Amino acid sequence: MDPGEQAEALRIHHGFLADETLDWLDGVLGDRREAPAFVCFHHPPVTLGVPYVDEIRLFGEDRLAAVLGRHPQVVAVLCGHAHTAAATTFAGRPLLVAPGVVSTIRLPGQNGAVADHAAPPGVALHTLDDERRLTTHCRAVTGGSSTSA
């Protein structure tokens, strides 16, 4: 892919929240200050140390961070797109990235193609208790059944 094609691919495939979307989010969060909230969207707003994913992350993240800074009821930011479960922080809150449902991106140093299409799909289950303690469980989804003793 030549540099022009690569730039066009990034322009098309990276994340960016329009001003109208951020205004909407600010308004919705402002109307619901009494309840804990999760802010969920597709592209991670930070680098994850995976070059392929980092090139197509959410850009303009400082604008989103400013919105979140006005809303202390936001407990965490949830996103996907990276095809690998990951946990970090963004705007002073947990940022949890869901695992892939179609493929898993290989991490730097792992051999093989960028994506492992043989890996099972994954899910993340987030729970929030009465003390606002967030717990996340990540699981592979397999076709087999399980039994307990």
Automatic annotation (TrEMBL):
<keyword id="KW-0479">Metal-binding</keyword>
<dbReference type="GO" id="GO:0016787">
    <property type="term" value="F:hydrolase activity"/>
</dbReference>
<dbReference type="InterPro" id="IPR050884">
    <property type="entry name" value="CNP_phosphodiesterase-III"/>
</dbReference>
<dbReference type="InterPro" id="IPR029052">
    <property type="entry name" value="Metallo-depent_PP-like"/>
</dbReference>
<dbReference type="GO" id="GO:0046872">
    <property type="term" value="F:metal ion binding"/>
</dbReference>
<keyword id="KW-0378">Hydrolase</keyword>
<protein>
    <recommendedName>
        <fullName>Calcineurin-like phosphoesterase domain-containing protein</fullName>
    </recommendedName>
</protein>
